[in-house]
Amino acid sequence: MHRETESEFGFELRTCRWAEREWPPGAETEAKTETDGDDTIVVARQLGTKRRRWDTIVLECDPDALRRRANFGPDRLDGDLLHVVRNAPAEWTYYRDALPHPGYPWRYVREAIHRADDRGILETRKNGNRIEIRRRWDYPDWLERIVAIENKPDLDASAARALGSQLEYDVAVGLADEVWVATRKTGERVEPALLEDLPIEAGILALDPAALTADVEWYPRSLAVSESGTRILERPDGGPRDGSAARFEYVDPGTKATKRLAIAERAYERGWRSFVDTMRSDCRYFELRARDPRQALPYCAAKGRCQTAAECAGSCAAFEPEPPTWRTRGWPIEGGPGQRSQRVLEERRRRRRPGL
Ligand code: SF4
Fold first, then answer.
1. Are residues 117 and 150 in the same domain?
2. Which of 46, 220, 72, 52 is closest to 139 using CA atoms?
3. For ligand 1, what atom is nearest to the CA of residue 303?
4. Which structural domain, as residue segments, surrounds residue 335?
5. Ligand 1, atom 6: nearest CA belongs to which residue?
6. CB-hemisphere CA count at 13 Å for 35?
7. Same structural domain for residues 131 and 225?
8. Could you give the CA distance from residue 184 to residue 14 in angstroms, rounded to a whole number?
9. Which of 18, 154, 277, 324 is the most buried (most CB within 10 A)?
10. pTM for the predicted model, two decimal places
């Protein structure tokens, strides 16, 4: 087993890379591998809502619309910006006549208009003391489906129990179109994950993180994303004799659509290679080690393994800054190896966004 993929974090990064190259699972892979995957797929990690964060997210996108999304730049559009750019008119119009009432004070809309103008994604002008706006581009309908994948390389019975209730939550809310569990392929006749008590709506993938191949052990059901969902707030946990009722609340389709687009925008901005942003790439022990021509995994020379994003932080006792001499050539234009690592990942992230 490769040391880089032993940890859950290393496994998760391999799942992301596999998804980028091979999604959708079970389809013919030869052509995709030759072109390094389908460029209408956006993969991100550790995103979701306040209550639920998914390990890996795959966005299936409309190819033409995804390319037009690039007009709005690599950064995400938050809810306020989306309200402005999605409703901006083709002709100059006073902003209060053009935009639907947002349900909050107009001064926040004005602030969003100025931000949109600064980012070059909206045209504005003054007419007397009135602000008029005009759209630069239509905001495209680029998101088709959201697929959530939970990574559990070693799915034992207790991990399956914890995961089972999270997946039940996902199925009940129906925010993602599909949910999957990715587990490490064991090669046994029946993959152990199939024997665990997971919701039947969730798909099961057996992934070989070294070879970067996966078998579909169970196909998921499509969830009803355009219908009301049920959010499980609390469930009875007092053992088999606990007869108390679970508590639920309903989530209407409009709220779900807004949340889905917010998640998609964050995924578009971050991709999955952004893990390096929070790691100490300026540490002398930080390395990127190539696992295939397009994937570099973080590696800590002090620990002798792939370190997690959580441990590779300011609090790491083994942290040592890069020696200044590493930076002398090209400094300050190129920076040291740490900055170079960040640039490599940033460039790869950008290449995965057609049109940027
Ligand atoms: S020593 Fe600590 S800070 Fe440095 S690369 Fe390793 S985990 Fe990161």
1. no
2. 72
3. 6
4. 275-351
5. 300
6. 10
7. no
8. 11
9. 18
10. 0.87
Residue nearest (by alpha carbon) to ligand 1 atom 7: 312
> Measured in angstroms, how far is the CA atom of residue 266 from the centroid of ligand 1?
27
Backbone angles phi, psi at 3, to 5 degrees: -65, -30
Tokens of 49: 């809502």
Token pair of 90, please?
């083709």
For residues 10 and 60, membership in a common domain is answered with yes
Looking from the CA of 152 toward its CB, the CA atoms found within 13 Å total 22
**Looking at the structure, do residues 288 and 329 belong to the same domain, yes or no?**
yes
**Amino acid making up residue 239:** G
In the listed set 88, 111, 135, which residue is the last one of a domain according to the structure?
Answer: 135
288/344 Cα distance (integer angstroms): 10
* Burial class, 297, CB count within 10 angstroms (exposed 0-12 / middle 13-18 / buried 19+): buried
Kindly state the tokens that stand for 272. 């999955």
Pocket residues for ligand 1 (CB within 6 Å)?
280, 283, 285-286, 300, 302-303, 307, 311-312, 316, 318-319
Q: Could you tell me if residue 304 is inside a domain?
A: yes
Q: Which of 297, 305, 307 to mutate to test the pocket of ligand 1 (most atoms within 8 A of CB)?
A: 307
Are 171 and 250 in the same domain? yes
**In 62-107, which ranges are E strands?**
93-94
Cα(304) to centroid(ligand 1), Å: 10
Kindly state whether residues 179 and 322 are assigned to the same domain. no
**In tens digits, what is the pLDDT along the chain, a chain of 356 residues?**
555 556 888 899 999 999 999 999 977 555 454 446 677 899 999 999 888 999 999 999 999 999 999 999 999 999 999 999 999 999 999 999 999 998 989 999 999 999 999 999 999 999 999 999 999 999 999 999 999 999 999 988 888 888 999 999 999 999 999 999 999 999 888 888 888 889 999 999 999 998 999 999 999 999 999 888 888 877 766 666 666 666 788 889 999 999 999 999 999 999 998 888 889 988 999 988 887 777 788 899 999 998 988 899 989 999 999 887 776 655 544 556 677 777 777 777 777 788 88
| Nearby residues of 348 by Cβ (< 8 Å), 6 or more positions away | 273, 294
* Closest protein CA for atom 5 of ligand 1: 286
Angle, helices 253-270 vs 79-87, to 10°: value is: 100
